[in-house]
Amino acid sequence: MKLIFLDIDGVLNTCETAARTPSGNTGIEDKLVQKLAHIVGETDAKIILTSDWKIEWEEFEFCCSEDAKYLNRKLKKQGIKITSKTYDEHVYDTYFEDRGKGIHKFLNKIQNLETYVVIDDHTFSDFDEEIRAHLILTDYSKGLTDENAEKAISLLNTNAGGE
C-alpha cells in the first residue's frame, strides 16, 4: 500500500485562493486538486489527511462538518477521496510539534505499507529524518506544483516494495 499524508492549506490552496468554504475559510482550488489526482492516478496511493481540516472530517460523511463535506466534494470531482486521517495528541498545537507523531502512529498500524509521501507546506519540529526523506514541501504562495507532483510520483513509485 502506498500512502499520501496530505496537508490542505498551502497544498490545495494558496494565500491567493479566492474560493471559500461554507464557513468562510479559505477554500480549495480545483487546479491543485487535479495535481493531487494525477499523483493518485499514477501511483494508486491512498490519501491520509494530516491537515487541521481533519478535526472536522470523518470517514462517514454524515459526521463531517459542512467544510469537510466541501473538501470531500472537491476531491470527488477529480475522482479521488480521503481514506483516513491521522490522530495527533495535540491537534491544536500551535508549535507544530505533533504532526510527525501522528504520522508515525498511523504508519505503525499499517501491515502492508510499500511507501509513502508527506505533502505539506511546513516542516514540523517533530519531523524526524525518516519523515523528511518522504517530505514533498510545498510553498504556501503556490500550493502543489507540477514539480511537487512529479517528485511525489517518483518517490511513491521508486520506493514501492521496500526502501
Task: Walk me through the structure.
There is one protein chain. The chain is of the alpha/beta class and 163 residues long. Helices cover 32% and strands 13% of the residues. The protein has helices at 30-43, 66-76, 99-108, 129-132, 146-158; strands at residues 2-6, 46-49, 82-85, 115-120, 135-137. The protein has a 5-stranded parallel beta sheet with strand order 3-2-1-4-5, covered by helices on one side. Strand 1, helix 1 (30-43) and strand 2 (46-49) form a beta-alpha-beta unit. Helix 1 packs parallel to helix 5.
Q: What is the first-to-last residue Cα distance?
A: 13 Å
User: Helix fraction?
Assistant: 25-40%
- What characteristic shape results from the CA principal axes? globular
The number of strands is 5
Task: Return residue spans where pLDDT drops below 50 for at least 5 consecutive residues.
Answer: none
What's the overall average pLDDT, rounded? 90
Rg, nearest Å: 15 Å
What characteristics describe this protein?
5-stranded parallel sheet; alpha/beta; 163 residues; 5 helices; 32% helix
Offer a quick outline of the entry.
32% of the residues lie in helices and 13% in strands. With 163 residues, the chain is α/β, with parallel strands linked by helices.
Mind sketching the topology for me?
Elements: E1 2-6, H1 30-43, E2 46-49, H2 66-76, E3 82-85, H3 99-108, E4 115-120, H4 129-132, E5 135-137, H5 146-158
Parallel strand pairs: 1-2, 1-4, 2-3, 4-5
